């Protein structure tokens, strides 16, 4: 038995804006930050659950406050009571207090806060079972998994029964797929060379280093001045050649018509997809862009706030790639629903990585997806960004552009105690 005795929320920020790491056309100078949750238990400091949600600096304190407002819903609960009825628990945390739900519902700061807390529960559960999260999930029966999910608002597209049959379909071959991942890793792309604030020299150097390390797929930021976007695309193409993949990410800068005009001008650089061309809420706009762009893929999801939005994006045939975010959706439970929806609508999931700890999370999601849900690597690429991994106890391991299978128990999101102290805002050493 494990009782959650206290929910601690930390405001952790990294001054990434100093070097313009993570910069894009919408977010010129982000400070990668985490609202970091620790679930303390009656089993002492060796048994704690960790989770975080990602923000880009100012306002992280609002997310911390939201965690504190929700904390009483976890304090005093037995882990086993939660995990036995995980789907119901999820609904209670996200909707059980209607005064707090009013702040969303299931979106914005309150949902980000729920995500950090729910992911911390999964981390604690997996640690108690001595398994990495992907394995905890992959070992569950279809019925156990479906019991973890809340299908409210999606049953017109996916019922629990359908979810069970999707999972049953993949029961055979799980061990082979796990063995394959252990041998080859999970394929990935890198965003690290293409940040908007990087100079031409820095982009070229980072491309060359990445190619030496075996990377085949690269992402570029666009959405600034279109001539400048073209110039940078030409530089990247020159460095990576025609045979490697180039994705483009506009971070919501354009209107619908503008997206089409601009992408036609960038088409000569053969982009694999255009990510977040326009507002993340514009489902029909994405569908229109996709229809008119033809052979350039449309990707979105890092700002898609819940399963209902993804359901509609898929129903409207608005996206070619689903870029769900592990810390923006209401934690792993909601992520799994989206994986199932994506399997049903045959949309490859390429999760949003980077930030603080997002790569650590998403490796579990994509590996579980491959083993137990989609059974396919076609069109799937995990995002990789090479910042801040050294702050984690169990950081991602990359080999030749592939994620290696994580084996430590939990969700790989536990941050080193020194990092937590030094980067706490505003008192940590990093902020003095
Ligand atoms: C502000 C952030 O770095 C974003 O630019 C980043 O998440 C980006 O959209 C990505 O796809 O990695
Ligand atoms: Mg993006």
Keywords:
432 residues; alpha/beta; Enolase-like, domain 1; TIM Barrel; five-stranded parallel β-sheet; 42% helix; 14% strand; binds 6-deoxy-L-galactonic acid; binds magnesium ion; Enolase-like_C_sf; metal-binding; lyase
Write a structural description:
It is a single chain. This protein has 432 residues and is α/β, with parallel strands linked by helices. The chain folds into two domains: 4-130, Enolase-like, domain 1; 174-419, TIM Barrel. Helix content is 42%, strand content 14%. The chain has 17 helices and twelve strands. Strand 6 (245-249), helix 12 and strand 7 (271-275) form a beta-alpha-beta unit. Helix 1 packs across helix 5, helix 9 runs antiparallel to helix 16 and helix 14 runs parallel beside helix 15 (331-345). The protein is globular, with a radius of gyration of 21 Å. The model has no long low-confidence stretch (mean pLDDT 98). The structure holds 6-deoxy-L-galactonic acid and magnesium ion. Its EC number is 4.2.1.68. It catalyses: L-fuconate = 2-dehydro-3-deoxy-L-fuconate + H2O. Its cofactor is Mg(2+). Keywords: Lyase, Magnesium, Metal-binding.
Global outline: globular
List the domain count as a whole number.
Answer: 2
Terminal CA distance reads: 42 Å
Class based on secondary structure composition and strand pairing: alpha/beta
The CATH homologous superfamily name of the largest domain equals Enolase-like C-terminal domain
Alpha plus pi helix count = 17
Name of the CATH first level of the largest domain: Alpha Beta
* Computed CA radius of gyration, to the nearest angstrom: 21 Å
For the biggest β-sheet, the strand order reads 5-6-7-8-9
Binned, the helix content reads 40-55%
Q: Give the helices and strands as they follow along the chain.
A: EEEHHHHHHHHHEHEHEHEHEHEHHEEEH
Number of strands: 12
Task: Summarize the main sheet.
Answer: 5 strands, parallel
Structure ligands? 6-deoxy-L-galactonic acid, magnesium ion
Average of pLDDT: 98
Q: What fraction of the residues are assigned to beta strands by DSSP?
A: 5-15%
Low-confidence stretches: none
Catalytic activity: L-fuconate = 2-dehydro-3-deoxy-L-fuconate + H2O
EC number: 4.2.1.68
Domain Mandelate racemase/muconate lactonizing enzyme C-terminal: 200-296
Cofactor: Mg(2+)
């Amino acid at each position: 038995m494990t009782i959650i005795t206290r929910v601690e929320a930390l405001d952790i920020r990294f001054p990434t804006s100093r070097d313009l790491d993570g910069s894009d056309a919408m977010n010129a100078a982000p400070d990668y930050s985490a609202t970091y949750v620790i679930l303390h238990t009656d089993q002492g400091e060796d048994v704690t659950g960790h989770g975080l949600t990602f923000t880009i600096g100012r306002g992280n304190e609002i997310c911390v406050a939201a965690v504190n407002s929700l904390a009483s819903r976890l304090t005093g609960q037995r882990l086993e009571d939660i995990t036995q009825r995980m789907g119901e628990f999820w609904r209670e945390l996200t909707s059980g207090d209607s005064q707090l739900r009013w702040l969303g519902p299931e979106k914005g700061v309150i949902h980000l806060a729920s995500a950090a807390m729910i992911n911390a529960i999964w981390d604690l559960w997996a640690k108690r079972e001595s398994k990495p999260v992907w394995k905890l999930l992959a070992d569950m029966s279809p019925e156990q998994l479906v019991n973890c999910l809340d299908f409210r608002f999606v049953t017109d597209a996916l019922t629990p029964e359908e979810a069970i049959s999707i999972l049953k379909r993949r029961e055979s071959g799980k061990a082979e797929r796990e063995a394959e991942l252990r041998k080859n890793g999970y394929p990935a792309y890198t965003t690290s060379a293409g940040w908007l604030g990087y100079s031409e020299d820095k982009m070229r150097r980072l491309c060359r280093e990445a190619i030496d390390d075996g990377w085949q797929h690269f992402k570029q930021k666009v959405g600034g001045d279109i001539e400048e976007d073209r110039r940078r695309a030409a530089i990247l193409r020159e460095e990576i050649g025609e045979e490697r993949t180039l994705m483009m990410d506009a971070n919501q800068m354009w209107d619908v018509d503008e997206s089409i005009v601009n992408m036609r001008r960038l088409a000569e650089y053969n982009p694999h997809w255009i990510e977040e061309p326009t507002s993340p809420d514009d489902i029909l706009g994405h569908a229109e862009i996709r229809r008119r762009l033809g052979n350039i893929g449309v990707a979105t999801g890092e700002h898609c706030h819940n399963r209902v939005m993804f359901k509609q994006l898929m129903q409207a045939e608005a996206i070619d790639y689903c870029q769900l975010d592990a810390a923006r959706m209401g934690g792993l439970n909601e992520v799994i629903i989206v994986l199932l929806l994506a399997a049903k609508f045959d949309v490859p999931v390429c999760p949003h990585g980077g930030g603080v700890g997002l790569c650590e999370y998403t490796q579990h999601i994509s590996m579980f997806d491959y083993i137990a849900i989609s059974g396919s690597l076609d069109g799937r690429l995990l995002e990789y960004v090479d910042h801040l991994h050294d702050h984690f106890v169990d950081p991602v391991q990359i080999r030749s552009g592939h994620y290696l299978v994580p084996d430590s128990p939990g969700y790989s999101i536990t941050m080193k105690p020194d990092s937590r102290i030094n980067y706490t805002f505003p008192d940590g050493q990093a902020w003095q």
